[in-house]
Amino acid sequence: DAGVIQSPRHEVTEMGQEVTLRCKPISGHNSLFWYRQTMMRGLELLIYFNNNVPIDDSGMPEDRFSAKMPNASFSTLKIQPSEPRDSAVYFCASSLRPGYHEAFFGQGTRLTVV
Amino acid sequence: LAKTTQPISMDSYEGQEVNITCSHNNIATNDYITWYQQFPSQGPRFIIQGYKTKVTNEVASLFIPADRKSSTLSLPRVSLSDTAVYYCLVGETGGGNKLTFGTGTQLKVEL
Lengths: 114, 111
Fold this sequence. Notes:
The complex is a heterodimer of chains A (about 110) and B (about 110).
Chain A: E1 5-7, E2 10-13, E3 19-24, E4 31-38, E5 42-50, E6 53-56, E7 65-71, E8 74-79, E9 88-95, E10 103-105, E11 109-113
Parallel strand pairs in A: 2-11
Antiparallel strand pairs in A: 1-3, 3-8, 4-5, 4-9, 5-6, 7-8, 9-10, 9-11
Chain B: E1 9-13, E2 18-23, E3 31-38, E4 45-50, E5 53-56, E6 61-64, E7 70-75, E8 84-92, E9 105-110
Parallel strand pairs in B: 1-9
Antiparallel strand pairs in B: 2-7, 3-4, 3-8, 5-6, 6-7, 8-9
């Protein structure tokens, strides 16, 4: 398996624009996580899904952020409208099953909002 | 979720053994202890997980005392490539799946 695949790797956008980050988890994995990492706040869990169902989105900073998982092999994290303070590295991770703490992370998407 | 406390940073030299201790005084009966490693510009990588006593794999050892209020990640004979941030996580493996990372320990290995 190629591991968790995220796209794009880098994204530069202007404030106010919509941004969509994509993630393909490892085949057969039933849990998916979205994280955001900055120097100031470290690695923050935004939302996680079990069996394509959002379980906990308490980490999503505001209504501008939304995440979907339409099927077991694809998830998106959307920011609309984007703001400079959203600049960060966004990671997607997947694990075999709910409660399994060995998660595999993608390479991340570095988002810069200017 | 049990809160964890780790040193912010540690320095070592190549060939030495490094021990990173994590405190988790409020660990619950069903909680497991998991450690991750993160290199710059990469996502975290699972290293090891344990519940009690000692766990060893090809990368590291994890020591957990009987009261489980702390744990120690041991890296034998570190090299420059072990320079990374190490995170300790505590949580229940069944049911809820909230993998929450703390601030981690920045390990710097020098020649």
